[in-house]
Specification:
The chain is mainly α. It is built from two helices and no strands.
């Protein structure tokens, strides 16, 4: 299996899709105290980072 290089969000439609995806990650956090969507959203928005 070959992995593709990640693409940058360049079009408005892509940014909108990202926001929709983040919104879907947040669904259900009120009823599950063990689920914290912030732990998923933060690295998603920051993107991959090099270890220092």
């Amino acid at each position: 299996m070959s992995w593709k290089q990640p693409r940058r969000l360049t079009a408005r439609a892509r940014a909108y899709e990202l926001l929709r995806g983040i919104g879907k990650l947040c669904i259900g956090h009120e009823s599950d105290s063990d689920y914290d969507p912030r732990r998923l959203i933060d690295p998603l928005l920051r993107g991959p980072q090099q270890p220092r």
